[in-house]
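Researcher: I'd like a structural prediction for the single chain below. Treat it as a standalone chain; there are no partners to consider.
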Amino acid sequence: MGVTAVRPRLSLGEGSTPLVQARRLSRTLGGDVHLKCDGLNPTGSFKDRGMVVAVGRAAEAGARAVVCASTGNTAASAAAYAARAGLDAVVLTPKGAIATAKRLQAIAAGARVLEVRGTFDDALRLCRELAQEAGYVLVNSLNPDRIEGQKSVVAEVLEQLGDAPDAIALPFGGGGNVTAVVAALDEARVSVRVIVGEAAERGTTWASAIRIAEPAHGEHVAALVAAGRVEVVALSEEQLRSAWRRIATAEGVFCEPASAAGPAALEQAGVRDGTSVCILTGHGLKDAAAVDEAGSQAVEPSLDAVLEALA
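Model: Treating it as a single chain, here is the predicted structure.
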């Protein structure tokens, strides 16, 4: 991916994530559905694929700090790879709008986390302004190095399947991953139906990783739609919640809420046959607060109490 000796020193083992055949989901949705578990990247999300490249190139260029706006996963990834590279990381997040685990990941890795009293779009605007200052490099997906790194997911899917799938489904938040996936498919010269799920309530959705009112790559994704390369499906909150619960209970795969946008979009688009790959972009532990704890119950330390609870 074009990074010199810096990249091997920065690598945390990103990529090579499992592709899991979802047999029970396949019976429900139709066709042969696979789950690309990108939440098993080092910091728990797909962002690591591009961040290792972006931070590596920033280090090569002599940057002293990387800067990003984030709904959480970008923050955690940027902080980790900046620490690995010996760079400072500055993270701007919308105040109170990201999952606690993601914010704490960034803090733990030594990032300077600033909570902006505004939206993600406000945070991104400020980061773009800060990146004009000497020594700062923006590592949001507006940085083409991020897109370059994120293309690797397609190469892995093709290798793991041994062929191109009929469809790939993934979430649509800022649009960077959508851009990367389509670019990689074009470079591989394979024709694959690309279906992306966005929250109908973009600015307030429960799926915090895609809580982005104005996607940074929105115009490019719109052009891909116009060209027939991408289909966008708007998902209700209940459709997202239902798909998220089903992935865990049917397949044992715990993903963050935004990851459910891929399977939900696949279902709403009416894909009923062929081979489909849903890219699950983040691990469920990134937003564990989304889980309803009603399934947990306290009992006395006796078999009778256990049996009574199970009755």
